Amino acid sequence: MGALGSAGTGFTPHIITVMAGEDVSSKIMSLSQHGSRAICILSANGAISNVTLRQPATSGGTVTYEGRFEILSLSGSFLLSESGGQRSRTGGLSVSLAGPDGRVLGGGVAGLLMAASPVQVVVGSFIPVVKKEPKQIDSIVQASAPAKPAPGRMTGASSPPSRGSLSESSGGPGSPLNQSSGACNNSNQHGLANILWK
What we know:
This protein is mainly beta and 198 residues long. It has two helices and seven strands; from the N terminus they run E-H-E-E-E-E-E-E-H.
């Protein structure tokens, strides 16, 4: 269960409406500054007129786009962290946008994310649960202890081999997985090599 990361409690959704001419990033940051709640972006829709993105390949590491771009995806989170008695926020935003010609651009938000129309952002806030790391001695004991199978269950090499052929439910010729045709049929993967990607 520890591999899943830490959990949170008290999940609360919030709807932020950003008017044309306002910065979406700063509105989200102002919500994240209230109290000790962490936030994550759930969805967003609307149009952007000006955006500055991190793009390490360019000189200066950022690029600014101006025009009208529809938000395809806005994601990110801001967590409260504490180090040496100092509290700070960590996290950031990433955006994918579509231009008027259908081209898609995106990256990490490095500055303005100016609304061209009203932008609606749905944010979830929660109280992160911080678990203390177990003592190193405990983790060494747990790691060196042999795994004990549950009573009456066979595991590993003692499990009997499978018998029979592929069934309809496991991808055999009669499987619903092999009944599709056309563009959604994944059985002809070599055809994708001929598509030119730009």
